[in-house]
Specification:
By secondary structure, the protein is α+β, with helices and mostly antiparallel strands. Helices cover about 45% and strands about 15% of the residues. It has helices at about 5-25, 25-45, 50-55, 60-65, 75-90, 115-120, 140-150, 155-170, 175-185, 200-205, 210-215, 230-240, 300-315, 320-330, 335-340, 355-360, 365-375, 390-395, 415-420, 425-440; strands spanning about 65-75, 90-100, 105-110, 125-130, 195, 225, 260-265, 270-275, 280-285, 290-295, 350, 375-380. Helix 2 packs across helix 3 and helix 10 packs across helix 11. The chain is globular, with a radius of gyration of 22 Å.
């Protein structure tokens, strides 16, 4: 029997190591973590019902562990190797995101666990973007960027060897797993020395500041790590008291009785001193801190309603005005779990209560009746993914709080999957399968 460490355990070790590294690199992230933990603790104290529900649904343990990060890579080869690296940690590519529509020259996926059990243990996610060099207008500059990227290797030789070892033997023992975490971490470390001269950096930056961020450094440095809060409005309000300058708007849906999808805010990116080739120095802006509040995953029907209302609401001049406008428009979106369930707007996880265990469902009994009787409990499935409009909003706000106009490229999921070397999961199919599995465990195999 092979004595391999589980993918869940490796993922947890890696996410904790990355969090410790980022806290050293960006001390304000540590301050943010403290603030979020204090707000979460207060929410749980103020609402014993929420605490009990999170605990019963196995959501409480993951709350303080939960993080998502974001990286950007420059080549198909880098993306394909990252897929193999994340596979060691039980993380698979989920979803395709075209951010070019918002003027950001990348397309993306999220590497994350996909099963109920793995998500409960640690739902660590890495939002991973691939630079679209074809969106660089200047052909000569595009070719130069490609040549620069071709010269670098963002993975250590030992990391590559351990990935290959994992593929060959089907796992890693504890010592090799620890070595893998150490080596993999190097891919995401910040490097203050650029690989290019100042003129090249400035030319790429003028195309788009994100292009310079991807092309001009030796690795795909983590540009933010995101803890999960239970009250993002309170965190946003308290950030200035902690010496943190928040972005103007909270992205995503408004505050609701039943949170949906994902709300995000961040502190503005740090302006950091970097060195260029030929000895001179300058500043670079890329890394920031983000906070998220996750709600219910929506069905295609629910998502269509969300997208329509979000477009109708537009963007306010300040957060108070923006949130009020969102709240007004989103009155058209049902805000109680029963309506969300009966109108099939959100995905749910179903489980038997103690009463249901004692009196299992019988043929002919309806799901609605069993829920009404308290024999089956329905919990909204947590949204584990991302929102392209919100992601672009976060990116743009941290590139100077102004959108950099750029002709939008056409989405190309096929091109992205070719670069990745594998198809991406359809997140809706994953949610549907998880809901169906939970119903089957309750005795509703054909529900």
């Amino acid at each position: 029997m092979n004595d391999f460490l589980s993918a869940d355990a490796i993922r947890t070790r890696f996410s904790q190591a990355m969090s410790a590294m980022y806290q050293q690199e960006v001390p304000q992230y540590g301050t943010l973590m403290t603030l979020v933990q204090q707000v979460n603790a207060r929410c749980l104290t103020d609402s014993p019902t929420l605490k009990a529900r999170l605990s019963a649904a196995d959501e409480l343990e993951r709350l303080n562990l939960e993080r998502h990060g974001a990286i950007r890579v420059g080549t198909a080869q880098e993306l394909a190797t990252l897929r193999q690296m994340f596979a060691v940690m039980g993380m698979e590519p989920v979803g395709y995101y075209d951010l070019s529509q918002a003027g950001v020259p990348v397309h993306s996926t999220a590497f994350r666990p996909v099963s109920d059990e793995a998500l409960r243990r640690n739902p660590f996610r890495i939002f991973t973007s691939l630079l679209r060099l074809e969106l660089i207008d200047d052909l000569e500059l595009r070719q130069k960027a490609a040549a620069i990227l071709a010269q670098r290797d963002i993975f250590t030789p030992r990391c590559r060897a351990l990935i290959a070892q994992h593929q060959q033997q089907g796992g890693l023992g504890e010592a090799d797993a620890d070595a893998f975490v150490t080596e993999a971490l190097e891919t995401f470390r910040w490097h203050a020395l650029s690989t290019v001269d100042r003129a090249t950096y400035q030319a790429l930056s003028q195309q788009h500041r994100l292009v310079a961020d991807v092309v001009c450094f030796p690795g795909c440095h983590i540009n933010h790590l995101t803890p999960r809060t239970l009250d993002i409005d309170r965190v946003q309000a308290l950030m200035p008291e902690y010496g943190i300058d928040p972005k103007t708007l909270i992205e995503g849906p408004p505050r609701r009785n039943v949170p949906i999808l994902l709300r995000q805010t961040s502190f503005k990116a740090l302006e950091e001193v970097v060195g260029f080739q030929q000895g001179d120095s300058g500043t670079h802006t890329a890394r920031f801190g983000e906070i998220e509040q996750r709600g219910a995953a929506l069905t295609p029907k629910g998502r269509a309603l969300y997208d329509r209302l979000l477009a109708e609401a537009g963007t306010g001049a300040d957060n108070q005005q923006h949130q009020q406008r969102l709240a007004d428009v989103f009155r058209a979106f049902p805000d109680d779990e029963r309506s969300l369930r009966e109108q099939e707007l959100a995905w749910f996880h179903y489980r038997l209560s103690e009463q249901g265990e004692a009196q299992p469902p019988q043929a002919g009994e309806s799901l609605a009746m069993l829920i009404e009787q308290g024999r089956i409990i329905a919990d909204p499935l947590v949204y584990e993914d991302f929102l392209p409009v919100s992601a672009a909003g976060i990116f743009q706000s941290n590139l100077g709080d102004r959108a950099q106009g750029r002709s939008a490229g056409h989405a190309s999921r096929a091109d992205f999957e070719r670069a990745l070397g594998a198809p991406v999961h359809d997140e809706m199919q994953l949610y549907q399968a998880r809901q169906q599995q939970s119903l089957a465990r309750c005795g509703f195999a054909d529900a």
